[in-house]
Design brief:
Layout (H helix, E strand, L loop, with lengths): L6 H8 L3 H18 L2 E6 L7 E6 L1 H8 L6
Antiparallel strand pairs: 1-2
Length: 71
């Protein structure tokens, strides 16, 4: 439900406080991020600010833990 509705709307519908749902959601996101393999590419010219690009490799994530939608 949280993919399609706000946390507050889900909390009202299931009769829970939104803070508890945020804690649960934060834990799932933290776990998923730990499994990610991020690549970093930095680019800069002299006298200019840096641009950093972060890329996650979905194939490597699936190899490590499987598809998160299948859980």
């Amino acid at each position: 439900m949280l993919k399609q509705m706000s946390v507050l709307q889900v909390a009202k519908q299931v009769g829970e406080h939104d803070t508890g749902l945020w804690r649960l959601l934060t834990g799932f996101v933290r776990d998923a991020l730990e499994l990610q393999d991020f690549s970093v590419d930095e680019y800069s010219h002299k006298g200019h600010d840096y641009i950093a690009v972060f890329l996650a490799h979905p194939k490597k994530f699936k190899e490590k833990k499987g598809n998160p939608d299948d859980r």
